[in-house]
Amino acid sequence: MEIISSSGREDVAIVYIARTEDGGLIEFVEALQPPLPRRDKWVLIISTMFGCPIKCLICDAHSVYQGKLSKEQMLDQIDYLIAKRFGSGPIPVRKFKIQFARMGEPALNEAVLDVLKELPTRYPGQAIIPVLSTIAPLGTETFFQELLDIKNASYGDGRFQLQFSIHSSDERVRDRLIPVRKWTFKQIADYGERLIKGNDRKVTLNFALAENIPVNPKIIRDYFDPDRFFIKLTPVNPTHSALKNNIVSSINPWENTEQPDFIDKLKEYGYDVLLSIGEPEENLIGSNCGQFIQKHLNENLVIKDAYTYSVNSV
Questions:
Q1: What's the pLDDT score for residue 278?
Q2: 206 with 232: CB under 8 angstroms?
Q3: What pLDDT was estimated at residue 77?
Q4: Where are the extended beta strands (E) located within the chain?
Q5: What's residue 193's pLDDT?
Q6: What is the CATH number of domain 2-305?
Q7: This prediction's pTM
Q8: Under a CB-based contact definition with an 8 Å cutoff, are residues 14 and 311 in contact?
């Protein structure tokens, strides 16, 4: 793997664009959570595919799709970032997360499971927390069964995090935002019942909040047990796809936005709720979820408050 360019800030996030040995281009990210230093929290966000076949209306990564990454190509991204920061020595990070969330739908790539199985022996003694973010495509039941087995064998005591990208409590609206066949709310709820044991982290339901996109606490409670599911609310990040599809975030990360009124109702139902706005600077870098620097470089559009950092050749 050859790093060909990068964009970002050492104290926030850096996006790397790399060419694999077969000529494909990928992106991956390392990020901090200011004001926390790297020794307290370090997040790697890797790609699982060359682009993405899922054409989510708010994501730029689907502008290309050229197949799945191999286990070795995913591990190359992790190895590069660890070697850059810590050489061959120990990784002195208290909370070390590896997110399978930059480019691609991880549940459509069986090699993701091989990566998860190898991480504990590749980096022994390091309490890595894998984070798998998925839309739960239909037909991936075998993947999720093996994922459950791997979690139980290697990532107990809260060292695994699963996130389902939902975005709306209305399944018809969800189908418009994520226009592929996927698990129903009941299937997701049933899987959460099987996954969570003991001190496991709750399964995250992510809603990127957009104007005129319904989020109904009662419907959520009808399906999802608050003892097993956690609610994460985020802005719709500024992407070319969101702009093209007239999807406007109902949260402005640059302002002190008031909490949506339904948060109190979710808490009444017993949910833990996080309004996760993050660092607005990540939008300018292009490191946030749904952003894809290669897409931006091929467009002539300017997006307000996004993709303003220069991309520097290495």
A1: 83
A2: yes
A3: 98
A4: 2-9, 13-19, 25-31, 41-46, 49-51, 65-68, 95-100, 128-134, 161-165, 203-209, 229-235, 273-275, 312-313
A5: 95
A6: 3.20.20.70
A7: 0.95
A8: no
Residue-level pLDDT at 203: 98
* DSSP SS3 for 89: coil
What is the per-residue pLDDT for 302?
85
**For tokens 């809603």, what's the residue?**
207
Residues 6+ apart with CB under 8 A from 65: 49, 50, 51, 52, 53
- What span, in angstroms and rounded, lies between the C-alpha atoms of 261 and 250? 12
DSSP calls for 160-188: -EEEEE---SSHHHHHHHS-S-B--HHHH
Angle at 237 between CA 236 and CA 239, to 5 degrees: 115
Q: Which residues pair with 99 in a beta bridge?
A: 45, 131
Long-range contacts of range 142-151, CB-CB < 8 Å, 24 or more positions apart?
143/107, 143/108, 143/110, 143/113, 144/107, 144/191, 146/113, 147/113, 147/116, 148/191, 148/194, 148/195, 150/113, 150/116, 150/117, 151/195, 151/200
pLDDT of residue 64: 84
DSSP state of 22: T
- Rounded to the nearest 10 degrees, how much is the dihedral formed by the CA atoms of 113, 115, 118, 124? -130
At which residue do the structure tokens 């790697």 appear? 44
**pLDDT number for residue 127:** 85
Residue 123 in contact with residue 91, Cβ under 8 Å? Answer: yes
CA angle (137, 140, 146) in 5-degree steps: 135
Q: What parts of the chain have a pLDDT lower than 50?
A: none
Angle made by CA atoms 157, 160, 162, in degrees to the nearest 5: 135
Q: pLDDT of 109-159, one tens digit each?
A: 999 999 999 999 999 888 899 999 999 999 999 999 999 999 999 998 899
Structure tokens at 181: 């066949």
Query: How many helices and strands (H and E) does the chain possess?
Result: 10, 13
